[in-house]
Amino acid sequence: MGQSQSDENQQLTQEEITHLITVRLQKRTFKDIELYSFRDVFFSLAEHSDGVAFWSEDTLTRFLELPDALDVGALIFHASSAAASFPFISIGPTILEWEGMVRALCVFTGRYKGVLKKGVGDPVRLWFKVLSVYDRGEEEEMDTDPAGKGDAASSIITADTATTTETAESTSGTDDLFAVADPEDMEEDDDDDLALAALDALDAIEVFKHAEKSSVKYIQRLDPQDMIKFVMLLLVVAPLDPQESLATYVERYSADALPDLRRTAESIVRSMSTASQPILWSAFNRSVRRSLPYMFDGLKPLYEHFLFSRRLSVGGETRPQVKLPPRPLLQHLGAIMTNNVLNQLSFFLNGKNLWRRLRKLYIGSEDGFSMGSFEQKVFKWRAPTILLVSGSRMPATPETSREKSFTESLAPKRFPDSVDADGGLIFGAYVDVPWKISHKECFGSSATKIFQLHPIHEVFKTSHSHTDYAYWNRSAGVGFGAPLPRVKAGEPVLHMNLGAVSLVLDESLEFGIFTHSSDGGGAYHTSDLPVNGRRDNWQDRFAIEEIEVWGLGGEAEAKEQARQWAWDEAEALRRRSVNLGNDLEANRALLEMAGIIGGDRSGGSM
Where is the TLDc domain (predicted)? Predict the structure, then answer.
C-alpha cells in the first residue's frame, strides 16, 4: 500500500520532466564560463511581463543580427519557440524564458545529444518538427496554452508569432494534404520517442505519466516560401564562426546579391517541393539525408553567440574588439563557382574542407575548351577535385551540324527533359582521387559523387552495382557513371554509352548529357526524391557554356603538382636528347633499327 502510494507520488508531468532535462542540459553540456556568459546575455536583454523574464522576436532578431533583407526574424523566432519545448516539441511554441532559451540553444547547437544515449534522437526529424506547422483533423482543438504558463505567457508568444499563424491559416484551407501525403507524412504525436530517450538518460522512465493519446492524425508541413527564406539564411551563415558577426558577410545579402542568393535557395527547396506545394516530411527527409547532410551546421555558431558576453572578460575588464578583415572564402571567383555555390556545396561536402581551401585549376573560358588544356591544368593534382559544368538545354531538334553529330552519337530513344531550366543547368562531380587517362578502365572510388545544383539540388552517391565511377579519354571525353567507350585514338565516338545515372561530356567539351534511368543498376544510385518527377526517367542534353575544375588543398598541393609536371617535362626532354656520339656509321645503324631512317626515308643530312 505504501509502495503504491510512493510510486503514484513519483509520477512526473511534462513540465516537471522538461525542467529536469533543462537542469541536466545546463550541468552536462555547458562549461561554467559559457553558462555564466549565457545568463548575462539573456538577463541583460530580457523583457519582463508579470514577473517573467523572456525574449521577444525583436530582441532575438537584433541579438542574432538577422538582416531585414532576408525577412527571417519571424521564422527563427517560431523555430526557437518550438525548440524551447524540447523534448515535447509538438506542444510548442512556448515562451522563451530562461529555461526555454537553454533548451532552444541546445537544439540549435546540437548539445541536446549530450543528455541522450548515443544514437538516440533523429536530428533531421527534430529540425522538421521545429520548423513546421501542423495540419490536423477536426475532432478536437489544439491546446493554446500547452506549457501551462497562463494567459500572460500565452499572450507573449501569440504577439510575436502572428506572421507564422497567418501563414498557416492562409494555406490550411487550400491544401488537401491528406489526399497527397504518404503514410509516413501522417503522424500521431511522435514526441514519445524523444521524451523517452530523455527520460532514459534520467533513469526515470517508470515515473513518466503518459497523457491520454488523441486519435487525431497530424500532417506537419513547411511553407516553401518560408523555407526559401530560411535556406537563404543558411547559405549566408554556413561559414560563420561563433564569435564572427553576421555583418561580416553583408555583401552576401546586399540588394545586388539577393537575386543570386535566392536563386540558389530555390534550387535547394525544389528538391523538397513540387510547384510550391507544402513541404512534407517524406520529401524533406530524403532531400536532407542524401543531399544536404550539413545544411543546418551554420546554426550552431550562430546560436553560440549567446555564449560570448560582450560585457565580460577574464580579467573583469571589457576588452576592445579588434575587427580584422576576414579572409575571402574563395581566393578567385569563377563563372560558376561563386560564394553561394561554394556554400551550397558545403551542404554536402562539409565546408571545413572547402572554405579558403579551394584552388582554381581549370576554367574553360580562360584556358581553352580542349582535353589538352584540361589535362595540363588538372592532372598531377594529388588531392580531391570538384568539376562544375554549366550549360543551356539543347533544342529537341538539332539546329547545327555539331548538334546533329552529337545527337546521332546517342541512342535514338530518349527520356523527357527534367524540371524547367530557364536559368540554365549546372551539374558537377566530386572526385576524391587524382585524375588519370582512362585507356581500358575507369577510375575513382566509392567516395566519388555526381550532383546537380540548378535548377534543382540533388546528390547521387555511388552504388555497389558497377565501378564506372569516372573516365577521362582524349577521344571519348569525360564521363561519370558511364562505361568507357571503346574507340581508337584520334577517331570520333560513333556511339556514346550512357549509364543508368550518368554525366557525360563529349571529347570537344562542347556538349554534355545527364541521364537518369529509374531502372538503376549503374555506378550511382537513382533518385529517391518524391517530387518533380525525380524518380522517373529523365535526361538533360545541353550545350556547354563553362567548365571549371577546383582543387581542394593549398600551396603544398600546388607545389607538388608543379613538381610533378616539371619532372615529366624533364624526363621527356631527356628522352629526346639522346647523345648519338661521333660514330656516323654506328649512329646510322641505330636510327635504321629505330625505324627513323631507311627505305624511302633519308633522314636528312648527317
Answer: 335-553
